Amino acid sequence: MKGEEAVSELLNESDSRRRRTRDALRAIRILMPRGHARQRDPVEPAMTAHRVARAGALTLVLTLLPSCSTVPPPRPLPPPAPAETADSSWPRREVLDLALQAYQCGERERRFDRPVLTVIDYSLPSNEPRLWVIDVQREQVLYHELVAHGEGSGDTMAVAFSNKAGSHQSSLGLFRTEGVYTGQFGYSLRLSGLEPGINDKARERAIVVHGFPDISRSFAAQRGTIARTWGCPAVPEEVAPQLIDRIAGGSAIFVYYPDTEWLRASHYLHCGVQLASAAGDK
């Protein structure tokens, strides 16, 4: 190994010397008076010397290699990493399909003013990022964040949902974002629930998007969960202002959980069927 290191140092030194020589000679060429007569190119001897030195170095390498019997064999390549089964930067396909279906139905009914769709998947645990903000036109995920559920909905997992005031539970379904204000939890965003009996008491219950300090990855790593709310979809405090500004003023929020009754009854999940039926009755 020492022989190889010596050869390497020799080659590096040779390359460095060649560059210094070339640069110096080029500077000389520039500084020479134009009328000065030159009998020979000053760069050529240096280049010739460099080629001779490099050939000698290569000969030395070939001489030393047979004696390097202590060189260990190359390490085997590590096994390939298993392929990801899903892209976690996007919602699961079945959830995204439902969210887009509800969004498109609401858009046909002119419920929204901005082509932005926020998806919350409450079937995932609270210590995992389960909120996505999606630019529908550009097909880009703008934010992928933690989000809280109501304390009445469960601990780490949300399992119960309600539209009732005082339940401290989250509500499912399709919402529309409204205006912003500064309140008890700082910069916040009002929501309107679009589904009667499911989430239409959101304004009455003061269900808003806001930031909260105990909704963070570090808190989740320490406690195994994050803070809960009285039903608000609260997000990490540090990202709340930017996220709120991105979705405020008439965009869609779709809150999912595999609740059989809601999935069967939601107007926004069966909009195409109902519209086709209405058209056929005319």
Concise account of the structure shown:
The chain is an alpha+beta fold. It has helices at 2-31, 43-64, 93-108, 217-223, 240-247, 260-265, 271-281, and strands at residues 116-121, 131-135, 140-145, 173-183, 186-193, 208-212, 235-236, 252-256.
**CATH architecture assignment of the largest domain:** Beta Barrel
**Count of individual domains:** 2
Number of strands: 8
Quick check: average pLDDT? Answer: 79
Structural class: alpha+beta
Helix content: 25-40%
Globular, elongated, flat, extended or rod-shaped: what is the shape? globular
Tell me the CATH superfamily of the largest domain. L,D-transpeptidase catalytic domain-like
Write a structural description:
- With 282 residues, the protein is of the alpha+beta class.
- It has two domains: 2-67; 93-281, L,D-transpeptidase catalytic domain-like (Beta Barrel).
- 35% of the residues lie in helices and 17% in strands.
- The protein has an eight-stranded mixed beta sheet with strand order 3-2-1-8-4-5-6-7.
- Helix 1 (2-31) runs antiparallel to helix 2.
- The longest helix is centred in the first third of the chain and has 30 residues, at 2-31.
- The N and C termini lie far apart (89 Å).
- Mean pLDDT is 79; it is low at 24-47, 57-86 and 275-282.
